[in-house]
Specification:
By secondary structure, this protein is α+β, with helices and mostly antiparallel strands. The protein has a single domain, classed as Glutamine Phosphoribosylpyrophosphate, subunit 1, domain 1. The protein contains 9 helices and 13 strands. The strands form 2 sheets. A 9-stranded mixed β-sheet has the order 4-3-2-6-5-1-11-12-13, with helices on both faces. Strands 7-8-9-10 form a 4-stranded antiparallel β-sheet. A hairpin with a 5-residue loop joins strand 5 and strand 6. Helix 1 packs antiparallel against helix 2, helix 2 runs antiparallel to helix 3 and helix 7 crosses helix 8. The chain is globular. Bound molecules: glycine.
């Protein structure tokens, strides 16, 4: 059995390249890292990699992670500036015995020493969003925070190995140095080839409160189906935060077990995910909550066209 599942429609192009490779016997680690790198390289995705939205200081600080479910080795970077593919740096770190999570200047220096490319990651389009948001915040008193769509991709290969990778520019207008859940093992991602893997997207500050990805994998190990594990973790965390913290942000997850069965859960209106397995052709799903359960259906052609137009639409400054 092989399979691949990813958060958000933005993963479609990367997943459509990696799925046939998994079908042909490629390693899950290569499949997920290549698919995430494709999202990082695409300038119109404004929450990941090149073209990602900046901090309040106008700098793009990127977070990414990789975990190998066979060895439990992981590597992660936080606040990485101007390196082309943070996910590849994270994968390289997973091969080190120590220093698995590097942040800021140390992460950048290590990446450059290892031969990773220096690349200016702030685009003119991202700066247009930034200037617009600064003005709206001043004029209309709007909250500056927004835009935390992380790409998280889980792969299962024919050898039974699983891997997960994540990448994000984090919260738009975040403070310099802020890190969300995406490079934090157990929160933004977790993978154990003997059970399965999970990855999260949404408000990192809230996803971290539930150690969300680890908790999903733990429940799958305890016998839950991926869908039961995903729904129960998301909606229990939502209830807990509402009653004890008084508010809750966006929480969305995808997961897959070692048999290639998958699940997705969300507490927001529009969460999309992409999946392909040996049993299921490549599909983009639109997930919606129905009380404490998530339902999903394939998006239609009109939705895909509207999406393509939306991500390239001019920004009215
Ligand atoms: N989930 C991404 C972040 O909060 O940075």
């Amino acid at each position: 059995m092989w399979g691949i599942i990813a958060t958000w429609r933005m993963a479609l192009e990367g997943v459509s390249e990696s799925a046939p490779q998994l079908a042909a016997g490629s390693a899950a680690s290569t499949a997920v890292v290549d698919a995430v790198a494709a999202v990082e390289d695409f300038p119109f995705y404004k929450s990941v990699g090149y073209g990602g939205l900046p901090t309040e200081n106008g700098e793009v600080e990127l977070d990414a992670a990789f975990m190998d479910g066979d060895t439990l080795a992981f590597g992660a970077v936080g606040n990485l500036i101007d390196i082309a593919n943070p996910v590849r740096v994270a994968q390289a770190l997973s091969r080190q015995r120590y220093n698995s999570l590097l942040v800021g200047q140390g992460a950048r220096e290590w990446a450059l020493e290892q031969g990773f490319s220096d690349k200016a990651m702030l685009t003119e389009r991202a700066m247009q969003h930034y200037r617009k948001r600064c003005r709206e915040t001043l004029d209309k008193g709007l909250s500056p925070y927004d835009g935390h769509d992380t790409v998280g991709i889980i792969g299962l290969d024919k050898q039974g190995s699983m891997s997960v990778a994540t990448s994000t520019s984090g919260l738009f207008m975040k403070k310099r140095g802020r890190i969300g859940d995406s490079p934090i093992m157990g929160s933004g991602f977790y993978c154990d080839s003997e059970t399965g893997a999970a990855t999260a997207t949404g408000v990192g500050e809230d996803l971290m409160k539930g150690c969300t990805s680890y908790e999903i994998v733990r429940r799958m190990a305890g016998g839950m189906t991926p869908q039961q594990a995903a729904d129960s973790v998301v909606f229990e965390l939502e209830d807990k935060l509402m009653s004890r913290f008084g508010r809750v942000g966006d929480l969305s997850v995808v997961c897959m077990n070692r048999h290639g069965e998958f699940g997705a859960a969300t507490n927001i209106k529009t969460f999309t995910f992409v999946v392909a397995t040996e049993k299921q052709p490549l599909t983009v799903y639109l997930a919606e909550r129905h009380r404490e359960q998530t339902c999903y259906q394939p998006v239609d052609e009109a939705w895909m066209q509207a999406y393509a137009a939306r991500i390239r639409a001019p920004i009215e400054e």
